[in-house]
Structure formats: C-alpha cells, structure tokens
Design brief:
The chain is α/β, with parallel strands linked by helices. The protein folds into three domains: 65 residues, no CATH class; 92 residues, Beta-Lactamase (2-Layer Sandwich), CATH 3.30.450.370; 246 residues, 3-Layer(aba) Sandwich (Rossmann fold), CATH 3.40.50. Helix content is 33%, strand content 24%. It has 13 helices and 15 strands. The protein has a nine-stranded mixed β-sheet, sandwiched between helices. β2 and β3 form a beta hairpin. The chain is elongated. The mean pLDDT is 88.
Length: 416
C-alpha cells in the first residue's frame, strides 16, 4: 500500500477534524492517526512500516496545521518566493536563484485543497467564474492563484513570502541594496514629505523598500493605504487600510483603486500610500500631488526612471479626460519629486540602481530628470557575480526642502 493511497484514506477518516479549528494540535492528530493505524493492523490485517507511518503523520500534521508539502519552504527564511506549476513541479527562489525542489503534491485535488485553505482567511474565492485571484496570507505573504482552463498544467500558485528579516533601512544597507549615504537620503526624504515613486519590475524589491521607509513616518500622521491585496504592514497606530473588492458571483460590486483613492481625499489624510498604480487612478494621484498632498508614496512597474514616467503618463490617459500630453507631463513634473528604481541583477542580488529627481519644469514638452545616486556595474566575473558600486551624481534641487522641514542632512553625501 503506497503512501499516497494511505494519505488519501486517512484524509477521509480525519475529515471531521477540519482544518480551521484553532484548538487543533499536533498531538491530537498524531493520536488519531496512530489509533487508525492500530485499527487497520488488528481488524484489517494491514501492516505499515514505522518509517512510512512517521512520514505520513508528519505530512498530514503539516497539512492540517500548516500548508502541507509547502510548510518546510514557508519555514525556510532563505526562500523568498515559491512557484507551483501544477501538483508535481514546485520551484523556489533562494538566494536570488530559481531552482526546482523535490516537493510535490499527491495530485491536483491535493493542491486545490491547499489553495482553498489559503483562501479561507482572506475571504476570496477562485472558481470557473473567477479563475484567478490575488490575496495575502495572515503572515503578510502575497499569493497569486490561476486555475484551469486558464492554467493548462494544473493550478499555478505563486507565493511571495513576507520577509521579517528586513525592517530597517540599515537592513537594506547590510544586504547591499543601497549604501549608507543613500539610506540617510531616503530617511530624510520620508521625514521631509517628498513625493516618491517606487519603480521596478516584479520581484525587484519595490514593496519591501516602501514598507521599510514607511516606518520612518511620524506616528502622529494619519496614513491611508490603498491596495489590491493586503501586503504592506505599517507599524504606526493611526493607519487606515483600504482594500479593493473583486466582483461577486454575479459580476457586480467591483470596487477599484480609483474608487478608493477618490474617497481617500475626503478622509483628511496626512499621507497616502498607493500599493500600485496601474490604471485611471494615476490621474487622481497626480491631481492629489498637485493640490497640496505631500509625502505620497506609490509603486509602479517600470524598467527605468524614464519608463516610470512614461507609464504614469500612459495610465493617466486611461481616465479619459482628454487632456493634452504636455498638460499631463506638467502635472507629473510638478507633483512627483523622486523616483527610486529597483532592479534584480543577473546574479540574483537586488539593488536600487537609480535615485532620480523629477524637476518641476519641462524642457519644451519633455520632463527633465536629474540622477542623484546611481549603481554602476564595473564587470560580471566568471561565476556570474556582478561587481559594481554606488555613485553620487548630483545634489537634488529640492535640497532646501530639508532645511524648511527641519530635517538635518549634510550636503556632503551628494559629493563623490
């Protein structure tokens, strides 16, 4: 009798235990399974060796109390991302490299059971009428699920783990994401209420940087966070978190980021944090920046500071206000102060490759950018390791803002 069959039968026997009982403990599950094994041996003459018993008990305990086959990957602090391509292929990102693991689910049903268990606390669903979903686990890890027929090889699950090891700006320095000068500059920007756009590709570290820097916001401020999925964890007390809502089973009731953003402006925010700019809310965001809201933080997907502005301009056009491009660019130039560009390099390391100021004037119809810090690659060695350094390029033209806001920062940090 193979282990897969044993587990399948035991799941039926243990179904009454459920998976959401907060009082459920490993001892209870172990005791129940042991009694079932004893019953099988005495009444059905089915003998199972001790090694198989222990393996089955361990896997079912993980399944009932945690995330089943994924539990050891969730517990590994060096695993930053888990990518499940159907029940039999589970990849991870570890130390910046993507590798396949030996972890497998028994079958598609087993995988879907794990997905359903993840979905319950989030209050989201995934089915034929809504075959993909984004949500967050209780520990802050972000999950995307897409199921057949859209995902041909079975349910595809991507888990971006919440990293508790990164909480202060010095942690980013120790990881080599930035240097000490850049760290001082970023903290000063948060305290001086500079409007910052966090740019980069998926998985490049944008949200991590935003979350770290948000910890330096004055706790007396009223912070309103708008997200698609609960991802950011702020440490201040006066935080209002707003979450979009997908359509119901009838396809109605959708609440989008733009709806929440418009409502936010009536909530007397001191700070607005926008989890991601991806649509018509870009225009409302720009209008908020140009109407006196300072210290706004937002995330956008782009490959360079210039591309970030192009994408912001394009998404602003989705609002359908038929504004000329030069007018949108003028709003961008006068509203956005700083772009922080994130990149994951070829060796898997994550760097902030640009800190670029957006000047509040146009050159004709073009937005003017001013690089303040930049990461420059010197070479890539034979083992693929990227060798480079952070360079100071220019003093930001908004430097007087620090003095105006009572934030101490030496101008010497901008001198190479």
């Amino acid at each position: 009798m193979d282990i897969k069959t044993i587990k399948k039968e035991l799941r039926k026997e243990l179904s009454f235990l459920g998976g959401a009982d907060a009082k459920l403990e490993e001892e209870i599950i172990r005791d129940r399974i042991t009694k079932i094994f004893d019953f099988w041996e005495k009444e059905k003459n089915r003998t199972i060796d001790n090694a198989s018993k222990e393996k089955v008990i361990k896997e079912l305990c993980d399944e009932f109390l945690g995330w089943g086959p994924l539990q050891k990957l969730m517990d590994d602090p060096n695993v930053t991302e888990i990518m499940i391509n159907g029940p039999f292929k589970v990849y991870i990102e570890k130390n910046g490299k993507k590798v396949i693991t030996e972890v497998k689910f028994d079958d598609e049903t087993h995988l879907r059971h794990a997905v359903e268990k993840m979905l319950i606390p989030a209050g989201r669903r995934v089915d034929e009428s809504y075959p993909y979903v984004d949500f967050s686990l209780t520990d802050g890890s972000r999950v995307n699920v897409i199921i057949p027929p859209l995902s041909v090889g079975g349910a595809t699950v991507t888990i971006r783990k919440f990293l508790r090891s990164i909480s202060l700006v010095n942690d980013l320095v120790n990881l080599g994401t930035i240097d000490e000068r850049m760290a001082k500059f970023l903290v000063a920007c948060i305290k001086a209420k500079v409007n910052i756009l966090f740019s980069g590709a998926t998985g490049s570290g944008k949200t991590t940087t935003l979350e770290v820097l948000s910890s330096y916001i004055n706790p007396m401020e009223r912070i309103i966070v708008i997200e698609d999925t609960l991802e950011l964890t702020l440490r201040q007390e006066h935080v209002v978190r707003l979450l979009t809502r997908p359509p119901n089973i009838e396809g109605k009731g959708t609440i989008e980021i733009r709806d929440l953003f418009i409502n936010t402006l009536r909530m007397r925010p001191t700070r607005i944090i926008l989890g991601e700019i991806r649509g018509a809310e870009a225009m409302d965001y720009l209008q908020a920046l140009n109407s006196g809201h300072r210290g706004c933080l937002a995330v956008i997907h782009a490959s360079s500071p210039f591309d970030a502005l192009t994408r912001l301009e394009t998404t602003a056009l989705y609002a359908g206000l038929y504004m000329p491009v030069w007018a949108i660019r003028k709003q961008i130039a006068s509203g956005v102060d700083l772009i922080i560009q994130h990149d994951q390099l070829t060796d898997g390391t994550r760097k902030i490759t640009y800190m670029t100021e957006v000047l509040d004037r146009l050159n004709g119809e073009e937005i003017i950018l001013n690089d303040i810090f930049r990461y420059e690659i010197d070479k890539v060695d034979l083992e693929g390791k990227v060798m480079g350094s952070f360079k100071a390029k220019n003093t930001p033209l908004f430097f007087p803002l620090f003095k105006k806001k009572g934030v101490e920062l030496s101008e010497d940090i901008f001198k190479e």
